[in-house]
C-alpha cells in the first residue's frame, strides 16, 4: 500500500503516517527502487493500535511508549497495557471517592457554628489528606475563606465545607476555574448539581478511555502475534 492508502484506512494524513514512522510508532516501511514507501497490513494494525491507545492516554504518552511496545514481546506489551488499565482504575476509584465525599459534604450542615468544630490549618490538612500549603493555595485562589488572627488561620464549619468541596473536586481531576464556579453556585444558591455532573462526566470519560485501551490492546496483540508467526516461518 502507498502512504496515502494506508492513511485513508486509519484516518490519518500522509504527513501523519510519515511522522509516526519517523518516530518509530510503526515499523519502517519497505522502500522501492524509486524511493516510494510500501506499507502492508502490519502498518495498518500498528496505526490502529496507536490511534486507540492515544485516545485512551493521550498522543504524547502514546508516542513515547509505542516504539518499545511494538518492538517488545507479548509479555512486555501485556505488562504495559496492564499498567495503563491500573492507572485508569485508580482514577476511577478517586472519582467515586470524590462523589461519596460530595455527598458527605452536603449531608453536614454549614450554618451551625460550634467553637469545638473549628480547626487549625494543620488539623484540617491532616483530615483532608493534603498539605497545609494546598490549603494556603486554595485560600489565595479565593476558594476557601478561613478566619485570620495574625498569621494563624482558623477554619469554621463553613470554611471546612469549602475545603472539603475543593478537595473532592481536585480528587476528581478538576482545575481551579471549574471548582471556583461550583463553589460560587454552592455559596449563592446551595446548588451542587454541576459538581455532581462534572464527576459523573469524568467517570464516563474514564469508561471511554478504558474501552479504547481494550481496542488498542487487541491491535497490539495482533501485531505482535503476526510478527511471531512470521519469525517462526523463517
Account of the protein in words:
- This protein has two domains: about 5-80 and about 215-234, Multidrug-efflux Transporter Regulator, Chain: A, Domain 2, CATH 1.10.1660; about 90-205, Multidrug-efflux Transporter Regulator, Chain: A, Domain 2, CATH 1.10.1660.
- The model has no long low-confidence stretch (mean pLDDT about 85).
- A three-stranded antiparallel beta sheet has the order 3-5-4. It has a two-stranded antiparallel sheet with strand order 1-2.
- A hairpin with a 5-residue loop joins strand 1 (about 30) and strand 2 (about 35-40).
- The longest helix is centred in the last third of the chain and has 41 residues, at about 195-234.
- The protein is built from ten helices and five strands.
- The chain is mainly alpha-helical.
- Helix 1 (about 5-10) crosses helix 2 and helix 5 packs antiparallel against helix 10.
Features:
234 residues; mainly alpha; Multidrug-efflux Transporter Regulator, Chain: A, Domain 2; 2 domains; three-stranded antiparallel sheet; two-stranded antiparallel sheet; 5 strands; DNA-binding; MerR-type_HTH_dom; MerR_fam; MerR family transcriptional regulator; repressor
